[in-house]
């Protein structure tokens, strides 16, 4: 399923039959060498929701859904609103509806489908996410049957565009500290929604500047003089003519770094009254007399349960960010396999960019991470679907899902930004032209790093979860077990000052560099390194934080803060392990042997890259010996060359059609230019009137002079 | 010279008199501790061209020169053109003119002034750079008196907007391979300028899409059947009504990732005839009969001499990129010192972002690099001025200047992009709003990484220069010296497998962690580490490439390519050393002791950060022992806290006025919101009708129940 232009090069036979040399002919796998079955790998990557994705990809290829480059903010917003109506008319998001509302409750499929929209226009993906993933989901997940009956249909059809009014200017990451209040008035049986000060304005809300008619507003529920913490309320904000409702104010966030197809804005409430039943009351309700009740007794657990229903946003950003990385790599790798610059091996033919070692080193490790991200995302999506379908719903499953989402969303959004930027630079001036997509992708994806949970805050959540698991483990060991546990950890700790390979590899290693590099590529080695690192980093922080126990809050907070960087580092190490394991599990599910072998090389590139990035830590902790440490980067470079002939196949398997790619440099423009120039140079060289270079002329003149001198001598001699 | 709002916090006395605790009161240097003399440091940073910079800063603060956020490409181009006319009317760039044209020949001042424009609008900085730094400079540097008389005045006044037509779609970095031809026709005594194929179109040229009336076109000079390589020709491209000249075609590059105030475009020539005297003939000329002459005999050296006159662009990008980093850090650090999120130490007051360890770790190392970049840039600017004023002009000085520019431009433009992005993310949602400047800065600065010499290609140039210096050094040693040299290198090589500290630090070290960390901060240690690293990395590549000598070109190219990543790495190590040394030299020139002490901490942060990034290499090469290696990151974290109280002073010294900053979050908006919210919370807490939290209510209920139970027992007991 690939654009012919995008596969312009590798059908040429190399004819060499050997490992390609860096500057030789365009490398293709030699006969008998493993080859990627692009079609089959593409199907694997489509995953469980392949049909939904195929339909969504067909949709994402339609020109009327595409981002245009030179629109004003107003024009872009108008265009995306029209696109939203188109999606609504086609009922795209109805598969998210539960059986009670006539839907199939296909939450995984719904998210999978919307992720694919990112290649059409990220503004559309996010505006759809606001409407159906956040606003509608809040009503579905936090409301009850009556709310569903009253508001869901209009939300689906976009009769009521909605805003998801959680974040305030003063509080984004710390939702628990939101300051908007909803105070119950038993006299009128109404809520009074109020914004007490400027920092409590709801902010950055998609749909708030222009289009929203209603908002799901998160506010502190206050009744009978008690503040029950943040709950969600349904508040109409504009009438059918678009005029603000009494007491509601709106401001425009104005132009942004990207996603300018979305009308982000602010909302404030000046004692706005709404009926008692506009409280979305699944997890907390108020009787007409103002008595508060909740199925969850602990206010803390109740709050986190409510928040947890919103994990969908993070799941879908993880998928979309991964798709964006795929698109960027497709463009940059296709271009790099056609674009030539500087002569190296041949005096007449220039070298294609992808044959430069540094170019491979820029792009292929990110390709490996993107594959890992794709397999990890599929696991996340399945976990999400299991919980939200109710098939695998339990407090533990929800907590695991939230931790996985909190680990993967920062990882994939960071990777996407870095990958898009690297790809843009790898395409030089072409990469800076809007038509080649990369700059627009970076602009739009930029905010993925800080919205729906700031990446640093999410990693901190992961770190805290890992710490608490570690502490639980210690706590759950009985008296007899403690001795065994301590002995185990002592062994692990002692290993940290003894090179790992000395313990386990004396038999196989025998000091040979080649062997030692082979064993770097054993999955058992990579897994042991990444697992132990993730564990030890948590353990180190846990040990360092023991001194905080029993201290005054201020002092304890200071101690925790002094290890914040390490805690974030431990969380990243955990995310690395998750991705590596997902990639490895993904490979195990592939039937075609050639594909499996190539992907194993790519997985090894991931494993060794992750180890190389943290090599100083592995060396200092004694887990990797200096001898072996020296081979890591060499082995990575070898893998780059082994993977070089498969680079185009690996991006082809992402299944990006011309209607998704749209970048001229990856759709034949560069190829055409190169072919025309090469033909010109060939013709010129064959013609008689081609100018001589000055150097050649000088050499010829010198030769002529020498000849004439010889002749002169010859004449004088007789 | 600082906006009052930007210095909102640190005037509060801490009262503690001790090193600030992470979550304690806003840290200011305790009495008696070193303090930065902001005014004096600001003056130091202004450097040799302080007066020009002050005038340029006043200009850059004028609203009519500022970038607006929601313009179409056409509107932005129109606005920047008007701004250019304003600069021309004010004669801003006349200081670049040589004495022969009535100017002071102040090349350093000219570049210094234009760098400052980046905070007004990078499009203006670059469009001015195209007109006066490239187009006019080409006429000045490559032309002779007659050309100056004919074209310079109209270039200065913008009567002739010009394009600098060097890059072609098919060749950017590899200028030597440009394909446009200028063939001499002795019959008419004209040049025939021609674009032979699509990839030879001139591309990405500022002014080409709309405004240029003339272009300095780089083309292969062909006369009498000989191709003398790339020379520069003056070609009119539009008439006074803006219509294309016969045979000249233009295309628009369209919207770009940034710099949309510039009309970048393409030019092609279909046998366009220009007079013989339109060849800019300083380095090569053709007589009426077509005879070619040049003051430089070697075609290679002639080409590089011509190119070398264009180093000014790289110098000015280095300065502008550094200024952009300063602006981003000013915004992010000011905001981080006011913005609060999550309670830590105090149950009522939230922690400011800059008091989080991870936030310091994100921003302060970049602040250290930006300071180093500022001092290094000043050295570069002085070197540039010495050469271009003629005071210090020699082939060696030019070569050194080019190498320094090639090392610093990639370093500072990379740093700017990374810093702006980190700052944007560190400001969360606010950072994504266009009004807060960071996203616009990233968009505009993006292309600095690949234009005026692609960063990778420039670093490769540096690497090659380092290699050739190394080889020369070997070659220049006489027979007796070779033995001594080999003995020296053998010592160095043996040290690579013996921890450095074992050799030199046995006396002082004595295993104490504290001592060992102190010595990490000795400038001698940092200098030795960075110098040896830069040297050894070149040596390693040189040794690896020995096998390429005498091989067939294809094989030799393959060997070189296999070490390309290492060569680039060696070039980066060199650039790190240059920056560290410039920072250290800059500190030595500061009189105020407090300032010197704080900057020394900042320089240590730079040194240790550079070492930490490459710690695995230092460990593997035996230059740093495992014991010392373990202290590097701890020492960095200690430095972060030591520098925390000075962070605002350090960004204040950049001398950015409100008219440069313009980001509301760094000009009081956040401060106001925080103050209002804090006042509200205080008033609320003091009032009687504040709601109780559910937790407090539950505790009170439980207490009441216990009391009533006690009463019940009491009653039963009598």
Automatic annotation (TrEMBL), chains A, B:
SUPFAM superfamilies linked to this entry: Acyl-CoA dehydrogenase C-terminal domain-like (SSF47203), Acyl-CoA dehydrogenase NM domain-like (SSF56645)
Keywords: FAD, Flavoprotein, Oxidoreductase
Residue ranges of every copy of the Acyl-CoA oxidase C-terminal domain listed in the record: 528-664
Residues covered by the Acyl-CoA dehydrogenase/oxidase N-terminal domain: 62-155
Domain of life (superkingdom): Bacteria
Domain Acyl-CoA oxidase C-alpha1: 308-467
Cofactor names: FAD
Bias kind Pro residues: ranges: 22-32
Chain ranges of the Acyl-CoA oxidase/dehydrogenase middle domain: 163-272
Alphabetized InterPro entries for the sequence: ACOX_C_alpha1 (IPR055060), Acyl-CoA_Oxase/DH_mid-dom (IPR006091), Acyl-CoA_Oxase/DH_mid-dom_sf (IPR046373), Acyl-CoA_oxidase (IPR012258), Acyl-CoA_oxidase_C (IPR002655), AcylCo_DH-like_C (IPR036250), AcylCoA_DH/ox_N (IPR013786), AcylCoA_DH/ox_N_sf (IPR037069)
Low complexity bias: start-end ranges: 9-21, 688-702
Region Disordered: start-end pairs: 1-32, 680-718
Family to which the UniProt record says this protein belongs: Belongs to the acyl-CoA oxidase family.
PANTHER family: ELECTRON TRANSPORT OXIDOREDUCTASE (PTHR10909)
This protein's name: Acyl-CoA dehydrogenase family protein
Organism annotation: Brachybacterium huguangmaarense
